[in-house]
Amino acid sequence: MPSTREIRGRIRSVQNTAKVTRAMEMIAASKMRRAQQRLMDSRPYSDAMLNVMGNLASQTAGVDEQHPLMTKREVRNIQVVLVTPDRGLCGGLNANLSRFFLQFVRNQSADISVVAVGKRGRDFSARSRLNIKADYIEIGDTPSAADIADVPKTVIESYENGEVDEVYLCYSQFVSTTVQQPTVVKILPVEPVELDGSSNVDYIYEPKAVSVLQALVPKFVEMQIFQSILESIGSEQSARMVAMSSATDSANEMIQDLTLLMNKVRQASITTELLDIVGGVAALEG
Amino acid sequence: MATMKLEIITPESIIYTGDVESVIAPGSEGELGILPHHASLMTALQAGDIKVTVNGQANSYSVGGGFLEVKDNQVTILADSAVNS
């Protein structure tokens, strides 16, 4: 049996852990609210862009000169943009995403290179001996579109100069505070979005539909990558909040169990001492 | 006076939304002015100032490139970045 002193020490250490996890939970909660807000704020832009893209694509469908980023090629090399958090301590989020990503990679017959956004993804890809083309780490909790502009630039460049024939985006989609879904989507070549007939408008294009499309397609890729990074940050913070909240709960439970044990041990030692004294007195009297 | 709806949207937030009387924007082919009931139009924008008239008052926003869409008396500006200037 451990002594009461040992148990008291353990209680104190668990209490300290609980304090830390509680603080992390609260920080994650406030960051999560921010991240969610940013996600909501970016939606009007992406919705409007999708609309415009769909309209343009249907207008330019018959045109011969296709945009280089929309031309399909035979797939020999694939690039995956892997968006992950920089840090751990967020429950199963990273493990789930890594497993999902690896599964995806294994199912491809083409050669794969990785553009890692976030430390976790970079380290994971390195451990899995994948070819890392570029990495972007420590982008922070509130990156602006300009902060991450290098990522789409790299990707578009390697697509344009023929290094890769398809580009995928892999990230944790933010479904709700408790649910984050590992997702992979193809971002290059850009596939025209199908629109329902109602929003199809006859536009006047300035200068020409094709040249507007030229300018729009790279923006579209940028927007998708930015969106996925926002999703990933939202997922990270909410996963961390949930993980830290359950860690705080288990710590409190442990403190209760340990306190109970400590009381029992103390009681036992008092009983033994009493028995000793009673035994001693009995011996003297006898 | 007739008005139309204007929205200036960036990837990060909505910069402006409201009813306006006119918009002058830096199109890729030169400045273009839009008044209410303009035909549907779509153009790329270069970096420059967007001048907006609301109740006879002129306002200006700096944008760093983007797109402009006019549809059903509604002007949507998708800007890479925008600030009220």
Name the assembly state. Answer: heterodimer
Count of separate DSSP helical elements of chain A: 5
Shape, principal axes of CA atoms of chain B: globular
Kindly report the CATH topology of chain B. ATP Synthase, domain 1
Order of helices and strands of chain A: HEHEHEHEEEH
CATH superfamily of the largest domain in chain A: ATP synthase, F1 complex, gamma subunit
General description of the model:
The complex is a heterodimer of chains A (286) and B (85). Chain A is an alpha/beta fold. Chain A folds into two domains: 56 residues, Helix Hairpins, CATH 1.10.287; 212 residues, ATP synthase, F1 complex, gamma subunit (Pyruvate Kinase, Chain: A, domain 1, 3-Layer(aba) Sandwich). Chain A is 58% helix and 14% strand. Chain A has five helices and six strands; from the N terminus they run H-E-H-E-H-E-H-E-E-E-H. Chain A has a five-stranded mixed beta sheet, sandwiched between helices. In chain A, helix 4 packs across helix 5. The longest helix of chain A has 77 residues. Chain A is elongated. The mean pLDDT of chain A is 88. By secondary structure, chain B is mostly beta strands. Chain B has one domain: ATP Synthase, domain 1. In chain B, strands 1, 2, 3, 4, 5, 6, 7 and 8 form an eight-stranded mixed beta sheet that branches. Chain B is globular, with a radius of gyration of 11 Å. The termini of chain B are far apart. At the A-B interface, helix 1, strand 6 and helix 5 of A face strand 5 and strand 6 of B.
Helix and strand topology:
The complex is a heterodimer of chains A (286) and B (85).
Chain A: H1 4-59, E1 77-83, H2 93-106, E2 111-117, H3 119-127, E3 131-136, H4 150-160, E4 166-174, E5 180-188, E6 204-206, H5 209-285
Parallel strand pairs in A: 1-2, 1-4, 2-3
Antiparallel strand pairs in A: 4-5
Helix pairs in contact in A: 1-5, 4-5
Chain B: E1 4-9, E2 14-20, E3 22-27, E4 30-34, E5 41-54, E6 57-71, E7 74-79, E8 82-84
Parallel strand pairs in B: 1-7
Antiparallel strand pairs in B: 1-2, 3-4, 3-5, 5-6, 6-7, 6-8
